[in-house]
What we know:
By secondary structure, the chain is of the alpha/beta class. Strands 2-3-4-1-5 form a five-stranded parallel beta sheet, sandwiched between helices. It folds into three domains: 3-209, Rossmann fold, CATH 3.40.50.300; 212-252, no CATH class; 255-377. The protein is built from 17 helices and five strands. Helix 1 runs parallel beside helix 2 and helix 16 runs antiparallel to helix 17. The chain has helices at residues 10-21, 39-51, 65-71, 101-111, 117-123, 136-147, 168-179, 199-202, 215-224, 229-238, 243-251, 256-273, 277-288, 292-313, 324-333, 342-357, 362-377; strands at residues 28-32, 78-81, 156-161, 185-191, 206-209.
Amino acid sequence: MKFSDIIGHDTLKARLRAQIDAGRVSHAQLFTGDAGYGSLPLALAYVQYLFCKNRHDGDSCGVCPSCQQIEALAHPDLHMVYPVNKREKKSGEVITSDMFIKQWRELWQSNKGVFSTEEWYAMLDLGKTMKGLISAKESEEIIRKLQFKSFSSEYKAMIIWLPEAMNQEAANKILKILEEPWDKTLFILVSEHPDQLLPTITSRTQEVSVGRIDIPTLTEIAIREGKSEGEAHNIARLANGSLLELRELLRGETDDTRATSFELFTRLMRLSYNDKHLELFEWADDIAALSREGQRNFLLHAVRLLRESYMLHAGLGSISYLWGEEEKFCKNFAPYIGNQNIEILVKEIEDAMVQITQNGFPKIVFTHFALAVSKQINRIPR
């Protein structure tokens, strides 16, 4: 994958190129950012540029054997690790990333490296509640692979996607490698939740923060997909810098994930407004039945809709990012989101997000969340 294949991030790409050109390659780097921002394919483009024998015009050539092998995710000096698991796992059975390389390559090629954790777990057929992990055995495999000399490149590279999925033993083994790295060995950790990593790991890496993709770039993509200029601009703003969110929006408002999140949000707010506690318990049961990624999607939609409602309440509707049914609901709901409760409501969402990410029991998390939201909605005088 070439730098030119990466959507947006022109300034960051220039900085990464300059580091390699100047020979300043940090042995351990931490790429951080939402999956929709493109941090994972950007990490691969960085490795391809590093490995390329014929760089020109600020990019890898894309045609040399090294580039072609990386494009196919088959370079002997490039190793990739990602959370894996499987149903009906036998007692004592060892599961590593290499067992699922076929599925990994298939998902990568079909989405150009931009995909969610939920899409990957669906590829592994893990169901709604099972999640992947990076085990201590995987860490041992990393050590084993990197002990060998490089085959054809000056460097060996290891990309670890979602290092926050490592258990404690695995993380400690990786930490030892970061403390005593082999010469010409590059580690790139690609994390969506760096706050969940051991501080001793983050302190030994150089962070590369991958931010949101700019609105003009996303607008251009939406226009190429057949949207009018005005509609494309609205969709790009709603995407909040994420290619994954843009993809969902381009599918239309009937998209199951978005529709589910919106229905849960409107039902929660109506039940909260009417102080119907028994029904709030039922609401918590419904969202607890979703996958972890589905619960996370709801919380992301909820915080956006709350902030948009607050802007409407504050008379800033002209810069609102709402349209369709969302706009209609939030205009009616806006009077109940104000200075008295917006910060507390957002904090409740952030707390719920942390608990779900850390495998908190969903029914307890969302029961508390629903009751807390109800309390805050009723703080606004009617």
